[in-house]
What does this fold into?
Amino acid sequence: MPPLLAAVGDKLRAVSWDREQYPDFLWSCWHLANGDPHDLVKLVKYMDRIEEIIGPDRAGFPEHWILTGRLSNFEAVPEATRARVLGEMRSRDIYDTIVPEDFAQALGMYPSAPGRWLIQPWLDAGMRIDPESARRGLEEVTAAAMGGRNPVATRAKASVFRQYVHAGRISMPSELRDEWRDVIVRYPMETTSEETSKVETFIRASFGAMEGAREEREAGGEGSSAWPQTFWRSNWSLFPCRRHEAPRAQPILSDDDRAAVESAYREMKADIKALHERFLQLADTTDPDIFNPDRYEVLTGIVARVLRYLNVYIGYPALWTMEHGAPLLRSVVEARIIIRYLAAADVDSDIFRRFKAYGMGRLKLLKLHFEEYLAAEQNPHEDMIAYVEYLEALVNQDIMEEFQDINLGGNFAGKDMRKMAAEVGLEREYRLLFAPASSNVHGEWSVIDEYALERCRNPLRLRHRIVRREVNGPIGGMVVDTVVEFASLLVDEYEQATSHGRTLTGSSGSE
Ligand SMILES: [Zn+2]
It folds into this structure.
């Protein structure tokens, strides 16, 4: 929900209705929860009755106190007045209406709630607090009141606004007053829908400013924020979480879906097979320049790696989601950017050697770390020793490790992927595909939020997040289609980048 911006002098603070204000408006919202505009008229009448009982003498009240219907506002009523208010309400036979039993049940769940004295007659009469009935009422009212712009919240604010106007605490410039007075008096029962929406917008805006002023006044007094915290925090132990009702009885895929996935699978598999064969044909007929094979090996290896990945991936339709397909999508877009970047360099450029050297330097570093680890072990496991020997052979296969530098930069080109993409005209692919896939691979919050967690459906839990139990997401062809399309473009890039080598040998003819 968009928080209200309460402007207090030069201080701007976001006040969230749901989190910080609603719990204090539990009584008002209880009377408004049905959504009937008449209820606002009734609520205002109840407040008039209570003020009438209190009378003009405000001894023992906080300065400038007026009745707003907040629980903390009731809490500020002095002891002696409380007893009189309760007694009078009962003798006028309006207590049960103003403090209904289901409200008493709900408030009874919170021993430290402000304004709890309101329900004392119910408790004295032997009312037993039934958590189940409290839960039902609270869930219903809370669900109706969530979101500061909904009718229930707006009317709760309107009732405060009305009290301020009624008490002459709000002064408006006269031209504004003339324009508004008539409309506000008719709100909410006799205003046109256009007027209603104007009044409500005005109320919400004024309420923000009034709230800010109130918090300023009460700063340092009775911590008015304690109750909303207590309300939400104690709901954790009082009421259970509720999950999205997943149609657990049904399989993830209907028969139709299954048939669609199977046919997509067959089609994709055939496409990928053809793509792979095309690539192998190109790779096999390109002159690798055996005297200096860096260029050939680097370009060919980049494509070969992605196609290996794709060949295995395609066999597991459960991975055909953005959640699980992101690492491959990222790899294939990255490979395309790198191939283009490398292909743009001169055939005998140093960059291919540097590409290899960067990777080998990282491997050498890994080997050094393992050796350090082994040296510190009393009895290193023989598998570990064998593994380090294996690493050593890998590191030394082309160049003695003494002659290999370790480059701690981000990649072989000393240039980040975005810049590289921009240089080769793939910035759009970088922004629209690589970046989101990358967020996924790095487990950024947006991705965790989207896949690993879900919102609790119990309105009494303030939409907090809980673990999503369902581990399979909806399968669709979109991610796979994109991956296959990009793999195909990647092979096109490869074909172009290596065409020179095939023209020279003439073994597959020139294109
Ligand atoms: Zn929950």
Remarks:
- The CA atoms of residues 149 and 204 lie 8 Å apart.
- The radius of gyration is 35 Å.
- The chain has a mean pLDDT of 87.
